[in-house]
Amino acid sequence: MDHEQSTGVDTVRSDILTVRGELAARAVDMTAIFSIIPWRPVVDVVFDCSMVFIAVVFSFGVGIAAFTLAACVIGNRQRALANLLHEAVHNNLYRTGLLNERFAAVFISASLTSDLGLYRRAHSRHHAFLGRQGKDPDVNDPPANVNRSWWIVYRDQIVSVQAWLGAIFSRLMDRRLTWKSRAWMGLWWAALIATSCAINGASFTIYFVAL
């Protein structure tokens, strides 16, 4: 570990100690904060997936007028699933590492076309180089001209082909993704699509995938 990375880790650890010190000073129940409730991830995943399904059914029945609303609901629940994936990276879903990994792989990461291993490595860099430009993968590069208006920067993101491809295909665009992980994602989505076609029909399934 180089000096810069070590400094980043030390900063994170210092922040953690500060937060824990504040919690202790305020007599906050630390046991409740750090406890893991086994049924909670299941309830969260069921709720998020149910909301996605309801949004698709509603939009499919009402028509194109409800498309934007459904897309917002689905995006919101995808963000919630991504938050759960983040907790899985920190082994916060279950205390057993294997159960934590398998639950995330089956019920979370595949639905987001993400890979827990790649995300964990990127997130480790985020913590090691917290907030450091060019080091922290969660910190975007500044625009070429920092004096441009926010609208121009936002417009560039909207019309960015790379941004669209990343939003649609997520980690599938990452060359570091193993063929094993790609095969798992393909099988997961093939099973979901086949099940949806058998139960809901081809038209609904096509609409679901498109949405």
User: For the residues shown, what is the average pLDDT?
Assistant: 85
Instruction: Count the beta strands.
Output: 0
Helix content: over 70%
- Main sheet record: none
Main attributes of the structure:
211 residues
If you had to describe this structure to a student in words, what would you say it looks like?
This protein has 211 residues and is mostly helical. The chain has one domain (3-176). Helix content is 71%, strand content 0%. It has ten helices and no strands. The protein has helices spanning 3-25, 30-34, 39-62, 67-89, 97-109, 116-128, 150-158, 161-169, 179-200, 202-210. Helix 3 (39-62) packs antiparallel against helix 4, helix 4 packs antiparallel against helix 5 and helix 4 (67-89) packs across helix 6 (116-128). The radius of gyration is 20 Å and the shape is globular. The N and C termini lie far apart (44 Å). The relative contact order is 0.09. The mean pLDDT is 85.
How is this fold's topology laid out?
Layout lengths: L2 H23 L4 H5 L4 H24 L4 H23 L7 H13 L6 H13 L21 H9 L2 H9 L9 H22 L1 H9 L1
